[in-house]
Amino acid sequence: MLTSRTFLKRTRAGAVMKVVREHYLREDIACGAAACEQCGQQAGEPRLEAQPSGAASSLCPAPHYLLPDTNVLLHQVDILEDPVITNVIVLQTVLQEVRKRSAPVYKRIRDVISNPEKHFYSFTNEHHRETYIEQEQGETSNDRNDKAIRVAAKWYDEHLKKINNEETIQVILLTNDRNNKEKAVEEGLTAYTCEEYIKSLIANPDLVDRLACVSDEGKEIESGRIIFSEHLPLSKLQQGIKSGIYFQGTFRANRDNYLEATVWVHGDAEENKEIIIQGLKYLNRAVHEDLVAVELLAKDQWVAPSSVVLQDEGQNEVDDENEEEKENTLKSSVNKNMLRPSGRVVGIIKRNWRPFCGMLSKSQIKEARRHLFTPADRRIPRIRIETRQASTLEGQRIIVAIDGWPRNSRYPNGHFVKNLGTAGDKETETEVLLLEHDVPHQPFSQAVLSFLPKMPWSITEEDMKFREDLRYLCVCSVDPPGCTDIDDALHCRELENGNLEVGVHIADVSHFIRPGNALDQESAKRGTTVYLCEKRIDMVPELLSSNLCSLRSNVDRFAFSCIWEMNPNAEILKTRFTKSVINSKASLTYAEAQMRIDSASMKDDITTSLRGLNKLAKILKKRRIDNGALTLSSPEVRFHIDSETHDPIDLQTKELKETNSMVEEFMLLANISVAKKIHEEFSEYALLRKHPAPPPSNYDILVKAAKSKVSFNILE
Amino acid sequence: MAGLELLSDEGYRVDGRRAGELRKVRARMGVFAQADGSAYIEQGNTKALAVVYGPHEMRGSRSKALHDRALVNCQYSMATFSTGERKRRPHGDRKSSEMTLHLKQTFEAAILTQLYPRSQIDIYVQILQADGGNYCACVNAATLATIDAGIPMRDYVCASSAGFIEDTPLADLNYVEEAAGGPQVALALLPKSDQIALLEMNSRLHEDHLEQVMEAASKACKDVYAVLDQVVRDHVHEVTTLLGE
Ligand SMILES: [Zn+2]
């Protein structure tokens, strides 16, 4: 069956255009219930269990499937992810709406749906002949979607009744919208709010903690005083930004002072690049990294960046006097010259909340259920959560998500997500570090691993067609001790004409990771290998990083080679690039390589090669420094690990040997040659990096610190 | 936020079709009495009209005449109201000329032109509404019109497009899918002999995927063939019963 959707759209030029799109309605969309015989062949396995095995509910003892609406899905995804919640019908209407409103939640829901143990089924109701509905005249699309959800729930209800089962499976609509719930009940559906349902789960009282507290807007005005001014709606903000009354920027909270923040204004305006926000009221519920709109204050209200450290330690809600006192300490002792553009947050353009790691600060009142949570990141405000397991969570590292920040609340409201473990535990703290720095550290998924080459791996004739055979060269690698991912190797030999041939060989990872596949995407997401004290989080699976793409000695490996002909003055005469196969003759440490170079007796091929490289590197380095190169030292450190307890006991900066700088020099040279080549070949597309001179304001903090600590002035 | 989801994880496209499904095809033959052959086709919201004149004597300069076969003269145009935004489309703009050329190639490959040396066959097609797959709709309409005109062909020429989204080949793209800018092939096929009359590709497609996409396109062409064949049979049936009375 066919229907068409018609809607009006404004084109970029401002004309109104009528768009007609086809919309096919089908009869072959299965309901996903395992016991159903009417729906015929199901694509793949039926997702909803014939005997739903979810947690027992006191509200609804009969077997049932859950059908959440958009807001429940958006706000309560933490709950839905819990293993206790199974057999859920996710409507296409809901999924599409979630996709529009929050990409991260959408991703999480997709992951849940694809997990067979969760028995989530996504039902394409918008294309089902019996569940599609038209938007009526004068109906908002929200109302229409709510109606579509009810129609689908009704359809399921009747459809499931036709199944020959001992017990009919019920469909429970979960909605937090009072209006929608009333209408659903009128239409004969079973509907509960998410809270009602979760509280009714007999065996799982702790799930309640993870409910997001999204209170009705109306309710919060009644209770308590208003602390913050209202956020302006997005349309007003956009208007204001367009007309220059407001500035759009990223909110950066001050790490050392919870009453102060800076907003980095977007765009390339020279003036008012940074706006200082001081005081709770002006910060107006913005959280670090939010995208906000700021109004500039009149010049006589401008303030100076504070030089005091203020930690938010308040435990009590009504702590106004204390607060004001603190705010006053900011204002005293202000130097007129230090005044900076200041402003106040008038609205939030986009929240950038993520789950936060931290600790619970248990309320002093014993029976209290509301507690404050202190995030590990000091730039994040404390979050109020409701939990009954405060005593269990005390002393644990936990994750909490923010749900909202009402106008009458000193702190944002949030809910408990996950317990990471006891604070101080090595594993727990490592987990916190990884999470707080957003380092993806899950094991590689099956989808990613499926793109790895099958072992045992060998070089085929096909591979050799496009590669130069450089296995005869005396190539060696020089790395820190214990290095298993050897990604570069070198060689140097004298040519008959007295010049030198130097080669840098980089592991050819692109041979194994094809563009766009899951392995490529995962590696791109990770971006780098993260080295922790005794753990390494690989960017690519170990088979590649430590084996096939590691240029180990005495095995054939694929490489991308950059080969120069140089004269003894290290001037490049010829450069060429090639895909190659190499066979490294030695994997050396920096110390071993140094020893060979310094040794008086060794005269083998590897040693001669190293000496040649070293000599050239010295010339190259001198030339680079003479040309004004900057030496930025970022010393590498090594941990000394206690052999029995496996605890790190000491830290040592690595001693730099000549050979360190030798390797570095040739890597630089290879990069320079490649950059030149890219610029030559693809001049229009080449991305060339250039560091602009840093603005003097970047040094303000340093200058200030120097003045106050040791009272010496850093001159411009 | 993310753009339109062209293929959902459940396997449905924006308009509710599955990857290999065609849009609804409706067609009629003999819509104009004046022309030797005519046909009207709707493929989803793409609507095309084709008229065929000939074979007849050469018009205009006789020097163009081919001594061993008929000259196929095509003309493609789009109605001003065929797209969402009204645009004046002078005849012979670049896109139309390209399309005209493609049609000419396609039908030179299908019509048994050697039966009519020194003569001319005119095929005029116009897009009344454009919603993706314009070329394909034109070919299919022109095939029906040519059959209506009684001009002998090797086989029906059936055309369909195919794209490649989310590692899945999609048949018969609509406007939204075309506008997404992914790779797209247009295939005109002689279904019985599996011979290709024309194949065109936009944007880049990895060699590894070409075979799948081609398969999807030729499957779609054969599906189109089934529909067109039914239209022709129904038309013949209708005409003969009319004559019989
Ligand atoms: Zn069913």
Automatic annotation (TrEMBL), chain A:
Protein's UniProt keywords contain RNA-binding: yes
Domain PIN: 64-182
Record localization: Cytoplasm; Nucleus, Nucleolus
A single GO BP: CUT catabolic process
Coiled coil: none
Domain of life: Eukaryota
SMART domains: PINc, RNB
Biased composition, class Acidic residues, residue ranges: 314-326
Gene Ontology cellular-component annotations: cytoplasmic exosome (RNase complex); nuclear exosome (RNase complex); nucleolus
PANTHER family: EXOSOME COMPLEX EXONUCLEASE RRP44, RIBONUCLEASE
The name this protein goes by in its record: Protein DIS3 homolog
Source organism of the structure: Platysternon megacephalum (big-headed turtle)
From TrEMBL, chain B:
GO molecular function: RNA binding
This protein's UniProt keywords: Acetylation, Cytoplasm, Exosome, Nucleus, RNA-binding, rRNA processing
Name by which UniProt lists this protein: Exosome complex component RRP41
Gene3D superfamilies: GHMP Kinase, N-terminal domain
Domain of life the protein comes from: Eukaryota
Pfam families: RNase_PH, RNase_PH_C
Family label: Belongs to the RNase PH family.
Location in or out of the cell: Cytoplasm; Nucleus, Nucleolus; Nucleus, Nucleoplasm
GO cellular component, one term: nucleoplasm
Domain called Exoribonuclease phosphorolytic: residue spans: 21-152, 155-220
